[in-house]
Amino acid sequence: MAGQETGKQRASRIPLDYYKHPDWVQRWKLRLTVIAVVLAIAWCGASLVGAGQGNRTFSRGPVASVHAAWDAECSACHVPFKPMGQNAGVSTLIGGAHASDALCTNCHAGPPHSNRQKPAEVQACASCHRDHRGREASLVQLADKDCTRCHADLNLHVAQGVAKYENNVSLFAKGKHPDFRPLRSQDPGRLKFNHKLHMAPGQVLTSDGKPWRLADIADPAERERYRNQMRSTTPSDDVPVQLSCASCHQLDSGDFAANLPADSPAKVLLPPRAAGAYMLPITYDNQCKACHPLTVEPATKGSKPLTVPHRMEPDALRDFLVNAYVGRYIAGSGAALLDAPLPKRTRPGEAPEPVKPSPEQEKAKTAIAEQVLNAEKILYLGKQTCGECHYYTAPPGDGLRVDARPSFKIEPPQVPSVWFTHAKFNHVSHKALDCKACHARAYPDDPQASTVAADVMIPGIDNCIQCHAPSSDSGGKPQGGVRFGCTECHSYHHGDAAPAGLGAAARKPQRTLTIQEFLSGKP
Amino acid sequence: MGGSKRVLIDRENWARHAPWFLVTIVASVAASVWYFGSFADTGSLPGGSSIPGFTFGVLGGLICAFEMLLWWRKKVRTWRIGRTQAWLRAHIWLGLLSVPLLVYHSGFRFGGPLSTVLMVLFLIVIVSGVWGLALQQFMPRTMLQQVPSETIYSQLDHVAGQLASDGERLIIATCGPAPGEENAAAEEEAIAGAGHLVIGAVRAAGRIQGKILETRVPTSPVPGCEPLRDFFHERAAAYLREGKSADPALGQQDRAAALFRNLRTLLPKHAGDSVDALENLCEQRRQLDVQAGLHFWLHNWLWVHLPLAAALIVLMVVHIFVALKYW
What we know:
The structure holds two protein chains of two kinds.
Chain A: H1 7-11, H2 24-49, H3 55-58, H4 91-94, H5 101-104, H6 125-128, H7 144-151, H8 195-199, H9 220-230, H10 245-248, H11 265-269, H12 284-288, E1 295-297, E2 306-307, H13 314-331, H14 359-381, H15 386-389, H16 461-464, E3 472-474, E4 477-479, H17 486-489, H18 515-520
Antiparallel strand pairs in A: 1-2, 3-4
Chain B: H1 14-42, H2 51-75, H3 84-106, H4 113-146, H5 156-175, H6 182-194, E1 197-205, E2 208-216, H7 226-242, H8 253-266, H9 272-299, H10 302-325
Helix pairs in contact in B: 1-3, 2-3, 2-10, 3-4, 4-9, 4-10, 5-7, 5-9, 7-9, 8-9
């Protein structure tokens, strides 16, 4: 019975093997552990047998949106058990960093950066284009180090010789990045243009000069166009014309090409609607014609003004003028010339009968030749026509003769349509800025306002680094803060800066894919 | 039960933790320097496939595997592979070291579903471990102070049964068997034949307090003790067996004291010692309830820590395979 036990018995009544029998806290600990392990295994198993065979579940993160179609198709980009790119930890030990390049080039060829690179230093695609960093992550915005590992001392990385352009580029900053290449030389264009004069009110630089007024624009439609551009509130045409940058430099052809006649050369030259990265090319019809019409004979009573078309060389223009004046002569006092008898028709083998011009015909010929010569003098030697803007291959004075066709030509303008041929730039991205912030020399009030076309009007690196630099606050004046990485302006494969290199064609893969092949990632 | 209740980290044993602490700090700083140096060098946060990220992943994975070995070490207590205390110190400090290593391995990104689950599990395991460590810092001391009659947790029910038996013998010895209770009469005879009665009691001497066995010499039943017998059978017996759920009033120290004060007024003076003894038994039972509560809080974090750690290991194996396949 219980009452008979001694203190010793009582003290030893807890079983010695008590620890072999877990309490309820321990039992639940074990049960929960088993449940957790089973759940983990079940989740992995369910993922493996589900859609995508676990590829999405086991992915190290969502791929960029451009690769989203292959989010659950690892083998579209990965070669199993081969590291992707030189950045993979063990690629230096086990190699195979380039194994997956072939999969990348199924869709985009990735042309070489430079044919002077040391072949062993050419990185694998994935070394620079790092994916699995989220849908919104960019595959082409790279860290500067990806570029400067070679460009910081490029001589060490070219296969032969030395760096062709700049040896040391380590950062987009003064002294660490060269100034832009177009600024090292003059404008290669062969046109005459004075930004200071054109941007001045009324296009006069002296107080006693006669301002160019809206009323001086002959074409009423053009006059309205410039009035609208000036945002003039007065209905008077007696106001001086005030041009702005946008009067000539447009990003979107829709702004004025819509009003052009269907046969206007500008309609053909300009893209329907440009993306806006670069300014559209300047064309005579759009930007010059309103104030510089190629009129060689003003309107008179009963006749329209005689205006010659643009984009014609002097030789072709001679024929145009002859035809125009013949027509005018006949329409005027020379209608009787049409009544002159036609030459007698000859039989085969019979020599034609010589035709002697009538005195009226001789008179007309002389008069027309004189008119053509006068028109050519206006065009080639005058102040407001061809010579105002163009250079000739030879002085035109000696070539203007009635008995000989013009022997000189107009020099091609060769105005660059893109200035940064080794970089990319987007005007739309900078639309919040006043044009003057970067192109101050185009304004007449600038001390160094440009008066000749040889001036290169793009800004230098000093201008860019006001914004494109690390953020700082110098004397209460905020500076920098806008991205300034290499890939902001440069692209390795030059695909989207066609003037610099190979262009879109070079990025096309060797073999094109069907839609099914494309989506499966397996050609 | 006397003596000191050791906490995991205190001044007394800090000397044993100091080397681990130093290793953890130095390794964390070294990892940070390497990681952020690489960040400065490349301009982007190194991920798991970079050289530093891969290295941290391997080290972090090995640490996770080692951390799980503590469970196995506790199962094989007799093996001579270092003291469990030493394993626990390594478990604590290497576990903390794994935090910077695996966060750097992640490149500060959750990544896909698997890596996100891994990171979430890892962080919960770490936080629950730190929570457990914090509890271990003050709960043992609290238990020492509040539960001098502490016993082995798994034996609480067994000990509660003993208390109930002690109480029953005490009542029989004091009040005699109730009319018609043959078992009780036999029990009384047995107690009288033995010449003594052993019951558990809690005593304090200076700063030391603990559980003792008290041997009492039974006397002849005291007349007029029916209130004591009734109190025992109606309230105390159930309380001693089942705890405060059976009688919340006895489970509260002050209310129980009032009940016993009231009981004494109903009993002859000679029964006072027996009432003291019964009150002592009820106090022991109250402490066992307190011990059960403290024990639950001292160990329930393991319901989170251990299961999620086990799941973490399973998923980590999958992660390693997938990471090596699609490097």
